[in-house]
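re: that chain from earlier
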Amino acid sequence: MRGTTGQARLGRLGGSWSGLVWKLLLAAVILFLMSVASPLSWAITWGILNPIPATLILWGGLVVGIASSNLFEGDLPLRIAWGALAVGGYGALVIPGVLVGPDRMAQALGPVTLLTLAAHLGRRDLPRALRDWAFVMALALYAGLGVQAMWHVVNSFGNRAGPVVFLAAVVLPPLVFEGALLVLRRVGPLRDGLLAHAAALLLATGVAVAVVSTTMLNVETALPWRIIFALAAGVLIGGALLIGLATRPLVAAASGSLAARGRRGTTFGRALVELSHEPLIISLVVYIPLLYLSVVGAP
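^ sequence. v structure.
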């Protein structure tokens, strides 16, 4: 893995107006693809031709491919080979998991682990081979589990409302957080301080909680239950945003922003990886509660 020495401060990683514009444009493209796909999803209920899961699967594959190109060392052909192996392992996990069921992802995990390990056995530098294999599996699992959770979030709200709720409650909060921090940096006493991060976190969490509460709660729900639900959702989503903030140095290495320090501008690949990190974590955090609610609410 390429070094991550000389890391930037947490508050500065990935924080620029050009980067935020890139991420907003990418989020708009994802919303467009998923929203246009909604009418088709009623007619195509299974398979890779269903546009909504296809969009999520392709999104995760791009993230794995870009992160691989930034994380693996060696000559270009070797990096391409390990990147292709990581994308292949991701696809072998996520396609059956999303299109058939989560149990198929668990069934595919063993073969994927063995086959990706076997691909490294012919290398002379076994310690480095083992490290590269660990990165292959880490990327495949990280993106595969995250996309599986994303699909469950979308599917929980239906093909029509699901994409809008997903974008508003999962993708938008990290962008609100980043935008609020960029604005607060212009306020001298708050510049990169703990108070600025706390204010941005509360604003981003409040946006997500408002969307989820409006969507999931009945208008006749009693006020105490609304408060309990809002607090629980706030803890889950706010906690996921905190995890995302704490792991930004890792994302900076995967997106290539550490290697690009000192250069102006933001590339497509960097923006896509940084855009994807917090939504993947938020989806993973809310996956189990949503799964429980769907089981309890089933007839």
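Residues 126-156 form the longest helix (31 residues).
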